[in-house]
Amino acid sequence: xxxxxxxxxxxxxxxxxxxxxxxxxxxxxxxxxxxxxxxxxxxxxxxxxxxxxxxxxxxxxxxxxxxxxxxxxxxxxxxxxxxxxxxxxxxxxxxxxxxxxxxxxxxxxxxxxxxxxx
Length: 118
Ligand SMILES: [Mg+2]
Description:
Layout: E1 3-7, H1 11-23, E2 27-32, H2 35-45, E3 49-53, H3 61-71, E4 77-81, H4 86-94, E5 99-102, H5 107-117
Parallel strand pairs: 1-2, 1-3, 3-4, 4-5
The structure holds magnesium ion.
């Protein structure tokens, strides 16, 4: 069981991910709709794991990842990617992303990725 912060501007994506995680024994302790809110929540909640969407308004997932890793180098941030984001994925790796999960979500892939990091 991990405590998880879900950061995504899409309400549907957040709901899907939260349902999937909670049905499988994880505890979603916070959610955020953009990178700034994600960073603020990270500092406040110190979750075991963050799931971070890349494309979001105001502050995207890459910028948020940078802030989180700067404040906590041990932070485990899983980037949520969509088709055609290869360049963004490489950038996220450079800034310390722990792993990637692509949309649409595959339950086993999501759970295995979290298990590897715990
Ligand atoms: Mg998005």
